[in-house]
Write a structure and sequence with these properties.
Length: 203
Amino acid sequence: MMALMKDWRLIVSIVLAHVLLYMTFSDRDIFWYLYTAANLFFISFAIISEKIDDKQKTRSYLKYGVLSGLLLYAVFFIGHLLLPILPFSLEKQVASIYRWYSPQFSWHYVVLILVFIPGEELFWRGFVQKRLSIYFNDLTAIIASSALYASIFLYSDKLIWVLAAFMAGLFWGSLYVWKRSIPMLIISHLVFDVLLIVLLPLF
């Protein structure tokens, strides 16, 4: 634990992530601008700090990336069917997230694909989880990094977003431990987001 507390790169990056996301969610009108900036920071910090893991051949990471993205969407689809029986008005929260944060302009789709998705995977799995795995076993690192990933969405004031990020973090974190391929995670995340946000939104 003492060694972890001395890992200033990890500590500072998480603090900065919270500062950036607090600012990002402070005004819905600037969300797409600031979240783009936040993920550019994530990409830069991750690339500077850690080697990008790519231990799968192209055909392998494409196959597992696409299949895992489809699987995660299926899990979320089933979860969406259960929302009406759950407390805390979670169904209304999902509707408001789609209403307030869905892409509206062509550049939104571009940064979603080229900045948001790579930024989240490079930073939260390729840097944070990888760094935590130095100090903890894989299971603990997956849970801790997923909790940290979910925590930045507390500023959205949407419990469902926090829960969704945590579940997605557990899924992608487990894939990362299994295959050690950031490109595979990016493909998985891309397939999931395109289905969830563009092709088959849940609201």
